[in-house]
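User: Second chain of the day. Same drill as before.
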Amino acid sequence: MTTHKSLSSALLAFVFLVGNQVAHGAPQKLDWEDLLSPEYTRLQKESIKLRNRFAKFDRETRKIYRKVAHEMRVHKAQADGVIKEAELTERDLEILQENPSAKHPEATALWRDVDALRTKMNAASEGVDPQLDGRQVRLPGYVLPLEFDGDKVTEFLLVPYVGACIHVPPPPPNQMVHVRPAEAFVSEGMFAPVWVEGRMSTQGGTYDLTLVDGAAPVDTGYSMQASSIEVYKQ
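Assistant: Same format as last time:
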């Protein structure tokens, strides 16, 4: 009987704890991969299957696959007008003359599947996860300030890695979060990671980011009303 009472008490305590967390909007701890769209996540699993197909090739077939990939890239560049015949290298001409795609159907089939998947993943890379809309979340990242009040940041972009948008193309929109903190804060700099906690929205936007080499518009897939910002600690 004592054991049953103990189990019942433990279960009630657990239910109370979970219910209390839900009621008070306990934040869901996220990684940046959690911000990817469900479709992109599904396609990532497909990419593993393609890698496994490549892994089953013997050494010679892998060499052939690379030749096929080279040939198909040249054909695509020519079709898109990116490169003219006079601009082809000796290696390009050798590959086109060899025409491996016509002789090795297995390698060619894999390349076509990889190319098709790459196109789908590029299209899905901007999508967001609708299930995160309205969620209380906790997300680590780096601060790229947008607006200041004196020396305090009043609006910023949260990005997944150091140097995002600096001299390099920005991450896809679903890897950038526009944040409005409840209170302005002094940033430790763009190389100091932080934890940001608040309510997530899948309402993105376009913002002008000013850096040392000029201003540029960047697109975000998410926004957040931040209730707290703190120095990153694992």
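Strands lie at 28-29, 136-149, 152-159, 177-181, 194-201, 205-211, 214-220, 222-231.

User: Great, on to the next one.
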